[in-house]
Design the sequence.
């Protein structure tokens, strides 16, 4: 395990010690064979809802009564003990991490740590970090492939990012430098560890902070090994791991070689996934620590050297690395990005959610026995025209639709509103768009009349944005740009809207491929992209062909 393969001078000894510790844990597998069989008996059943990129933002745990009892028995013993031991390790790390940069000036802190501050503090933090995850149930980490050094691959791109426990990957890579939100520095222990790591900090609400972060990132990645390797999760947020969402191009702007790193959790039970919908982080932690052990595999792919075209186009570079990693993982590479924690696909100036809420609404209505969508739409449209301004309460929704099950009404309500009133126009237009009971011309006419306040025959910018949001079931951030294009000849009329959604080569796809999808679009299926190999054995991706983007 040579220095050139892993880290700059001075990092070899700590990494060698960590490697030896990992190998010792690997040999312990033999002793755990009887435990493994017992572990299978106590398995919990974890269901990742919505397999496929359309639901990459959702993870739900479903347990039978017997499984809940088994999990409670194991969890009652293992959870408190493991969390307490992990917390103890964090408390021990706190002062050690704080001492590493103590007494250094701001200029000295802006340079990579060298000398005694490196070897004295790095090894204890590395071992304590590994101990945290050992106590949480990650008894060993299986590593495939070989990590390249910072001169060969200054950047490590890790995917899929599906859990807060993915940070375990920092241990086998020797605590590579990371990028983190500046707000995290205020969290006890975590702030000290980020300072220890010399992490790049960025504020998500300050554009200047983002620009400075990109500049510093380029400087570190092009330092020719002067700085340790940078580790990023290019998806930028957690998903359920059933598909890779679009990689953010920021880290690829430096145009340096990158080593893709794959994360897998090859367990019969998938307990670690945590996304913003479904299983909470506390549930994921409880389910994981309630297992006797949890497997994780870290796989290094060959270094990916960008072509000249990729160096000139960071988005192309990021897309090709995404497709390469998706192919190696055997999951789809998608064109979805995250907006406000919702996976969306871009169509011109429009943002299309992975799954329109109206589609769930139609299914809920059908399960409730309301199968005549045409009659339901007529009732909602008539109510919108009755002078109530389209806003209704939950009780009014139940009465209007004739729902006997209040729980069904509440589920529909939650798809559209978090307050005390629901916009019936949005519900009606959304259901009409996905149900297929009306022709597109009639759909556009109805939507226009509902949002044309004052019956003036045209739409204001606000009305136009609300109409588009109702059609796709998601608030549109960039509707103003599209409105400006349409309003160059005056406020858009119904004819202008008809022309946009039926004749425009881009936006006509809103109805033909999204609101009325065929089988492929509905399932989100996408064949894995292929890559080509250069004559040095390093992989260069083919030009991207489309399919899912904090």
Sequence:
């Amino acid at each position: 395990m040579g220095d050139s393969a892993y880290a700059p001078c001075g990092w070899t000894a700590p990494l060698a010690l960590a490697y030896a510790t990992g190998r010792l844990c690997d040999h312990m597998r033999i002793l755990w064979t009887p435990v493994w069989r017992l572990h299978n008996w106590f398995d919990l059943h974890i269901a990742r809802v919505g397999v496929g990129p359309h639901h990459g933002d959702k993870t739900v745990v479903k347990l039978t009564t017997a499984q809940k009892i088994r999990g409670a028995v194991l969890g009652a013993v293992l959870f408190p003990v493991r969390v307490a031991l992990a917390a103890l390790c964090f408390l021990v790390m706190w002062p050690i991490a704080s001492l590493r940069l103590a007494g250094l000036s701001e200029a000295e802190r802006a340079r990579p740590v060298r000398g005694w501050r490196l070897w004295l503090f790095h090894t204890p933090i590395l071992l304590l970090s590994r101990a945290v995850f050992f106590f949480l149930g990650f008894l060993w980490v299986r590593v495939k492939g070989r990590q390249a050094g910072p001169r060969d691959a200054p950047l490590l791109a890790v995917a899929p990012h599906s859990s807060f426990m993915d940070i375990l990957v920092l241990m086998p890579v020797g605590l590579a430098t990371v990028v983190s939100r500046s707000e995290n520095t205020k969290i006890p222990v975590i702030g000290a560890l980020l300072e220890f790591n010399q992490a790049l900090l960025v504020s998500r609400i300050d554009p200047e902070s983002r620009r400075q972060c990109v500049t510093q990132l380029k400087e570190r990645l092009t330092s020719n090994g002067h700085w340790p390797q940078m580790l990023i999760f290019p998806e930028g947020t957690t998903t359920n791991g059933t598909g890779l969402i679009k990689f953010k191009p920021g880290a690829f702007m430096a145009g340096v070689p990158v080593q893709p790193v794959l994360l897998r959790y090859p367990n019969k039970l998938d307990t670690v996934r945590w996304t913003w919908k479904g299983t909470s982080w506390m549930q994921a932690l409880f389910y994981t620590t309630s297992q006797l052990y949890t497997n994780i595999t870290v796989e290094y792919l060959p270094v990916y050297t960008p072509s000249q075209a990729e160096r000139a186009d960071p988005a192309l570079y990021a897309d090709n690395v995404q497709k390469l990693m998706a192919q190696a993982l055997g999951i789809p590479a998608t064109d979805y990005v995250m907006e406000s924690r919702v996976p969306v696909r871009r169509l011109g100036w429009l943002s299309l959610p992975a799954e329109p809420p109206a589609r769930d609404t139609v299914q809920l209505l059908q399960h409730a026995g309301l199968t005549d969508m045409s009659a339901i739409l007529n009732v909602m449209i008539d109510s919108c025209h009755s002078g109530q301004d389209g806003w209704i309460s939950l009780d009014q929704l139940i009465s209007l639709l004739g729902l006997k099950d209040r729980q069904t009404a509440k589920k529909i309500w939650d798809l559209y509103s978090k307050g005390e009133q629901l916009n019936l126009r949005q519900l009606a237009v959304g259901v009409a768009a996905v149900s297929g009971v009306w022709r597109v011309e009639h759909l556009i006419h109805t939507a226009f009349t509902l949002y044309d306040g004052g019956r003036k025959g045209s739409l204001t910018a606000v009305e136009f944005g609300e109409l588009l949001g109702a059609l796709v079931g998601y608030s549109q951030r960039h509707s103003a740009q599209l409105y400006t294009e349409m309003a160059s000849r005056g406020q858009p009329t119904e004819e202008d809207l008809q022309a946009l959604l039926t004749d425009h080569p881009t936006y006509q796809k809103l109805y033909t491929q999204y609101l009325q999808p065929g089988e492929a679009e509905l399932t989100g299926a996408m064949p894995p992209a292929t890559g080509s190999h250069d004559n040095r054995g390093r992989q260069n991706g083919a030009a991207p062909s489309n399919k899912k983007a904090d």
